[in-house]
Amino acid sequence: MPQDWTYHALGLLQLTLELHEDKDPPASELPGLWADNRGAMLRLMELSHMGLRAVVRDADTGRPLAANLTVVQPEGVRSTTADANGYIFKPMAPGVSYSFVVQPYDPLQPGVVYSAIKMVDAKLPVSRQKYARGRGLEGLTLKRTLLAQKVKR
């Protein structure tokens, strides 16, 4: 299964939505399938942005830093890494408190050490009820800029 591999190896989640019992339904049925599922598909696209969106930067220079994000709480949630631009995205469930530890590093300067950044009780500011009723996007994203301090030696 390619979806299993991309999740395990790359940390990416792919979805397959099957809306008809035939792989290639007749073209005449497509407008009805779209009309029946348009709202749900648009909401799914909105919810793909739900969670923590953060940028990790050097506090002195403002340059983006790579980082490892470890999920401490709840247990069993997969950790992630920041990309080359310091960008982290971590999906979060509404109504659940998360604790993260972000360990920044500069791949261009491996000798420079940064202090870990702790985020305790990070929670989406939206209730499960509001989320379930499909009320807009506000509160579905927790946005942060994380400033990393160099460790003095």
Question: Tally of extended strands?
Answer: 7
What is the number of helices? Answer: 3
* CATH superfamily label of the domain at 45-148: Carboxypeptidase-like, regulatory domain
CATH architecture of the domain at 45-148: Sandwich
Taking the sheet with the most strands, its summary is: 4 strands, antiparallel
Query: Strand order across the biggest sheet?
Result: 3-2-5-6
Overall geometry: elongated
CATH topology of the domain at 45-148: Immunoglobulin-like
Mean pLDDT: 83
Residue share in helices?
A: 10-25%
Strand-and-helix sequence, N→C? HHEEEEEEHE
Q: Name the assembly state.
A: single chain
CATH class of the domain at 45-148: Mainly Beta
Radius of gyration: 20 Å
Structural class: alpha+beta
The percent range for strand residues is 25-35%
Task: Describe the model.
The protein is α+β, with helices and mostly antiparallel strands. It has a domain of 104 residues: Carboxypeptidase-like, regulatory domain (Immunoglobulin-like). 22% of the residues lie in helices and 29% in strands. The chain has 3 helices and 7 strands, in the order H-H-E-E-E-E-E-E-H-E. The protein has a 4-stranded antiparallel β-sheet, with no helix packed on it. A 3-stranded mixed β-sheet has the order 4-1-7, with no helix packed on it. The chain starts with a helix and ends in a 5-residue tail after the last strand.
What is the compact description of this entry?
The chain contains three helices and seven strands; from the N terminus they run H-H-E-E-E-E-E-E-H-E.
